[in-house]
Amino acid sequence: MIKEFLQVLDSEIDRMEQGKQPVELYEPIQYLMALGGKRIRPVMCLMAYSLFRDDWKTQVKPALSIEVFHNFTLMHDDIMDKAPLRRGKQTVHEKWNDNIAILSGDVMLVEAYQFLNQIEGVSLAQFQHILERFSWTAAEVCEGQQWDMNFEERKDVQIDEYIEMIRLKTSVLLGFSMEMGGLLAQVDQGIAQQLYQIGEFVGLGFQLKDDLLDVYGDPEKFGKQVGGDILANKKTYLLIRALELSQGEIRDRLTYWINQKQVDAVEKVKAVTEIYTQLGLKEEVGLQIQSYFDRAFAGMEALPLPQEKKNTLLSFMAGLVDREV
Amino acid sequence: MIKEFLQVLDSEIDRMEQGKQPVELYEPIQYLMALGGKRIRPVMCLMAYSLFRDDWKTQVKPALSIEVFHNFTLMHDDIMDKAPLRRGKQTVHEKWNDNIAILSGDVMLVEAYQFLNQIEGVSLAQFQHILERFSWTAAEVCEGQQWDMNFEERKDVQIDEYIEMIRLKTSVLLGFSMEMGGLLAQVDQGIAQQLYQIGEFVGLGFQLKDDLLDVYGDPEKFGKQVGGDILANKKTYLLIRALELSQGEIRDRLTYWINQKQVDAVEKVKAVTEIYTQLGLKEEVGLQIQSYFDRAFAGMEALPLPQEKKNTLLSFMAGLVDREV
């Protein structure tokens, strides 16, 4: 069933307008969208819709607005973060240049709205409500990216600030994906908010899982360099908590590795991972992830729908908990 | 009358949400919007609306979507063009940095859609048509900017390519401003297209006037450095035509000044201006500008409306023809 959602989405992505001029503007869009990814957001949107209605294939274009928006944020974030690789391939600003990545990204944001504009069968008020929620969420995602950049300049980031940052940068869009599925099915306000919260909790668990996999992921399966966050001194949940918790000799080791300019990458990743493990952070983050997903599952439980309607989404969510990639 | 449009628009701009967090994201928006400018686009939108209906004050927020979008393009274009100044003040990427200008710009594009979303009193189909036309135009403006950047790398740009570039980069948004005024007043498709064409011709005349003023503007009135395009070897109508027309000794002088690395700015501007004048380009561009505005005025003439309805817009357009700033 999940496969079917993915197939329909990917074939619609393949059909996105091609060959438009100037090519410098449109090739990067095609390139980035074709790099793949899990398409989690449109899948969650369509699955949320499917809780209430069966004709989810009518909603593929609106659902894709979220995927196009997400990829737009990747294109621009990669410029800001000076990231060389995305999904194992050159980022757009590396393959072309910064200016092209800025402008192509701008067009992608416009295209996201064009997909959203293909919503049918709702009232003007319903449509404008979806549009307002989309724009609100989009602005929040930008806010999250700005906080993330600000945090990289600061030494005193607190864990609750970090959680708020990932909520904005990642979770609100997963929340909105679920909410939009409901709004397209014309559910009432209360249900839409429940869906949003489920998605938001999934998003928080999902992002912390990312932090965890970066350190404890299986290099064979992970697909990108394990320890990338450690090498970049990226302020993840693990590093922020390690800075909060560590004392004495462990603190000295942590400080040493953070400040060391010329390091052997393998050694640093090994050493910092050991520190995290000694501080019990593998378990702590694991529990946090579980706690967020528990709340998401409780939200699903509370939805006034027959169990069999919920199974597809529940098994998709379970897959996110267990993911190794 | 024009003054009243401007006052209402500016007071609405002042009311745009302030003090939102993180400040790095929202201060640049406020800063750029407060730099002023002629607000030509929303004024034209409201004036076009006023051709058909009197309650133009109900349409201020939708009209502002175009101004916010225009300022978003300025913020991003200035990064790409590495422009230090905008309206005599530091550009956003200079005052803050590139990343902040990218991300603030992104939020501005979202805000443009939020203003658009405040359209009232139309049907879903009418609203979605406006949204589609807005997005289409937005993508075209990005295309224009990409062509503009491509042209800077090329030596063989033809005048018709240049006209198509400025049509995309500048004119389509003025066209859409007029069209949207009509669509908000729920005119029929034919009238909407007539309005679009009027705005498009105004836009072409307006941009060529810019090219002309950069060279022949009165330094006392112009507000920015006369000859800026000449110093940057910017491929304007004048330079492209000069490269097409010049031969022999004049051509040698032109080539000399284009390729000279270390030049006295005043000398170069004086010399190239002389070349343009010798080639008769001041007159030629003047005639082109007149021709575009003539077509815009003919379009106004053809609108099936009583003359007194048209006077405000006509006098506004006449002001654009005669402008010295």
UniProtKB/TrEMBL annotation, chains A, B:
* Obligatory cofactor(s): Mg(2+)
Q: Which UniProt keywords apply?
A: Magnesium, Metal-binding, Transferase
Q: Which CDD domains match?
A: Trans_IPPS_HT
The UniProt record lists the keyword tRNA processing: no
Question: InterPro entries given for it?
Answer: Isoprenoid_synthase_dom_sf, Polyprenyl_synt, Polyprenyl_synt_CS
SUPFAM superfamilies reported for this sequence: Terpenoid synthases
Which named protein is this?
Polyprenyl synthetase family protein
Q: Which organism is it from?
A: Aquirufa salirivi
